Amino acid sequence: QVQLVESGGGLVQAGGSLRLSCVASGRNSRILRMGWYRQVPGKEREMVADIVGLSGGGRTVYADSVKGRFTISRDNALNTAYLQMSSLKPEDTAVYYCKVNVLSGGTYWGQGTQVTVSS
User: Fold this and answer.
1) Is the CB of residue 115 less than 8 Å from the CB of residue 68?
2) Is the pLDDT of residue 53 over 90?
């Protein structure tokens, strides 16, 4: 079982910045993919940013709505993914979830962290 712990959410004014972190732990886990998704009530959960790769910097993918404002990074040694968010907009308000895919094929989700951007 892979355990995910998210942190860094909170309340921020529009134009501000936040950094989310996701720490993955578990025995014999080989993290293939780590990413961030978000969801608001009545809407489907959407991919925000993803990073794929067993080594190196990995390959990154961003939603068009956040590209240029958000940056995903990964520390392989710590099994940690970060989401640096800048120029935040009220539309970014959502619960942000960390998602992990392991080499064996399993998918794991964190419990989510609330990000609220005030106008």
Assistant:
1) no
2) no
* 26, HSE (Cβ side, Cα atoms, 13 Å): 20
Backbone angles phi, psi at 27, to 5 degrees: -70, 140
End-to-end distance of the chain based on CA atoms, in angstroms? 40
In tens, the pLDDT along 69-84 reads: 999 998 878 889 999 9
Would you give the distance in Å from CA 12 to the centre of its chain? 17
Burial class (CB in 10 A: 0-12, 13-18, 19+), 59: exposed
CB 109 within 8 A of CB 45: no
Amino acid identity, residue 98? C
Secondary structure in 3-state letters for 40-86: CCCCCCEEEEEEECCCCCCEEEECCCCECCEEEEEEHHHCEEEEEEC
- The candidate with the shortest Cα–Cα distance to 83, out of 38, 23, 35, is 35
The amino acid that residue 17 corresponds to is: S
